[in-house]
Amino acid sequence: MCCCCCSEECECRPLGFLLGLPFAFLALLLSLIGVIIWIVGLLLTCICPCCLCVTIIVELALGMIKAPFLVMKWFTEQIPC
C-alpha cells in the first residue's frame, strides 16, 4: 500500500528502507573510515600540495563518506510501491 494516494510515483517505500538498513550500517562504518582517510589526506595535501595521489585519495574518501546515503537511496528505489 502506498502512503501517497494522489500521485503515480510513490516516494515512501518503507520495505526498501528496512531492507537497506543493514547495508547502510555497513556503509556507515566505511564512511567513518573515509572520514579518517579524508582528514589525513587533507593534512598531507596541506603539507605537500604537489602530490596528485593524495588528492585522488581524498576524493575517494569523500565518496566513502557519501556511501550510506547512496545505499539507502538505491534500496528505496529498487522496491516498487
Short description:
The protein is built from 3 helices and no strands.
Describe this structure in words.
The chain is an all-alpha fold. It has one domain (19-78). Helix content is 74%, strand content 0%. It contains three helices and no strands. The protein has helices at residues 14-47, 52-65, 67-78. α1 runs antiparallel to α2 (52-65). The relative contact order is 0.21. The mean pLDDT is 78.
Descriptive key words:
single chain; 81 residues; mainly alpha; 3 helices; 74% helix
Please tell me how large the radius of gyration is: 18 Å
Judging from the principal axes of the Cα atoms, what is the shape? elongated
Count of runs of 4 or more consecutive helical residues: 3
Number of domains: 1
Care to count the β-strands? 0
Let me know the largest β-sheet.
none
Write down the secondary-structure element order. Answer: HHH
Q: Gap between N and C termini, in Å?
A: 7 Å
User: Which class best fits the helix and strand makeup?
Assistant: mainly alpha
Which whole number gives the mean pLDDT?
A: 78
Give the helix level as a range of percent: over 70%
